[in-house]
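User: Structure tokens for both sequences below?

Assistant:
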Amino acid sequence: MPVPCLLVDAFTATPFTGNPAVVCLLAGAAEADWLQNVAMEFHQSETAFVYPKNDGYHLRWFTPKQEVDLCGHATLAAAHTLWELNRVPVSQVIRFYTRSGLLTAVKLNNLIELDIPAEPPEETPPPSTLKLALGVEPVAVLRNRFDLLVELASEDAVRQLQPHLSLIEGLPHRGLIVTAAAQSEGIDFVTRFFAPRLGVPEDPVTGSAFCCLGPYWQKKLGKYDLMGYQSSARGGYVRVRMAGARVYLAGQAVTVAKIQLLRGDGMDLRS
């Protein structure tokens, strides 16, 4: 049976900016190998697979190389897709069952707000190749269970950074978050995210990274409501609201394309 899929730009209201994700609406569970092949075919930073559960939906995320434990922008895209296709009433909270536990999404006027676990970082000794990989001296180096977090001296240093991706790929982390306090009006911090190990050299807007950035900048700035900007080529804004062990990420999304996947739910691709 054909599978409906949407290509959605997340954390933006403007097509061809923010972070694109493909959302595939399955009738039920499918084999992981098949899901990985579909993600390789679409070749976006993330492809999300959604299928019904009693009081919500199962949600899995795949990069072109592997399944991941947490992805914010594809979760935002999945919620946007379910509302846009009238699978869920706009007034209803969406419950997603994932490898990172229960995540929820609510519609707040023109924003979608996600409830996601916080992933606070802790200080760590810098890897021996880090300075060479960055080409600049870090101000602080931390890590959480996913990523290495590096603070640089200024917003300009983050925006102008030209790291050595081959050296970043050799680091023993999912990815590298680079951040600095913002000097630009209307935002609290800027960031970029590099994950060549996952087949994503630079991710446009990384929701899961904001689960780390939120607690980090809350502690540094003493603010529970923050606005971050991911300064990639496509760029995107993420509103962050801290609430203990949870992070609330809010942003917009826009559908760019509707696709029909002709090889349906877990079909053997050799047939």
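Moving on to the next sequence.
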Amino acid sequence: MSEAVQESAVGRPVFSPLVALAMVGVGALSLLFYLVFAAYAPDLSGDYDGRASALSRSAVGFAALSAFLRDQDIPVLMSRGLGEQEMAKASLIILTPGVENSGKETLAVTTKEPKLVILPKWRAAPDPLHPGWVQNAGLLPPTAITTRLLESLSKSSRLAAAQGSASARLHNSFDGSELTTGAIQSWQTISGSDWTGYVTDAQNRSVVARLTGTRLYVLSDPDLMNTHGLKDIATARAAAVIVRSLRRGQGPVIFDLTLSGYRRSPNLLRLVFEPPLLGATLCALFAALLMGIHAATRFGAPLASGRVFALGKQALADNSAALIAMTRREHRIAPRYAAAIRRRVARIVGAPADARDDDLNATLDEMRRPSESAQPLAELMAEASRAADESDAVRVARKLHRWRREMIHER
């Protein structure tokens, strides 16, 4: 019973074709998705960054500002290291450095103008319960911000932070309009002999100032444009007016991301999934799919393997023949083969098989049909004894085969 069960199980596939196809498909898609996400991981990681960048959705980030400007029909572009030609097309370039950056790094981003540098104000710690959120860890010292970001621009730069939280009434010198903001805590302003105020509060303290001789503007209080500040509609309206006033032309507003570490570096894996190499990638994937279909339909299920050691006389004969062929001694068995054929024919025709070789050869020759091409049996036996290689043995075997057929009248 067990042998019958084993024989019935032989040839039965381990997996059904549908399961095997599903496994291959899931594996191929998983590999493809892994490669795509690995290539574009830097572009997708900004949502969970708590720093002050245009990709950050945290309170100190500026993702809300970029979305708000798009809603105002203002084109927005993110820069991961755009060249000067692309930067020249911008109507405004917004830089959002942190205290880990320096004024020289900020200026080195691009030489094109106008530029708006939004200064930091808050210490922010990651929120362990909400990825991408931050917790308020207090104010940054104004002197630290000045030393890191402003002294390289102007030695006369000063920052001041007011106490408490209150809304502010602003005067926009660009168009003479009056702006009102929501409640802003620790209102931060900028001053200095090299700075000209363009947006000032009721005490004539500058919140947006221009560096003399340039079109470099500085926003001293980031709460006027960050996500935390834009939650108030009045502050959002003031931010939109300021951005429109700073723009020159109808080009896009470009947010720089390189100061936050999002500089795009050459990536061969990314190039594979982008034009012009995208077409070659799709052709390669399609060719791989066709090769898989061709292999599946051509070869089919694997054949069941037989026994390692076969049973029976046939297996014994095959193994013996293989051993003889391996040792290259086929011609050595030619005499015994000739003697075996002679004994077999003698039994069939009724000749005395136990007679001496000469007598048996003569008897079998007498019983053979007379023919001009007939070769005496004694000569065949002698030729078999003289076989020196495989070709001699094969030639003698063919002659013995014809002799046997003549003796027993086999067609």
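User: Anything stand out in the second?

Assistant: Residues 1-5 have pLDDT under 50 and may be disordered.
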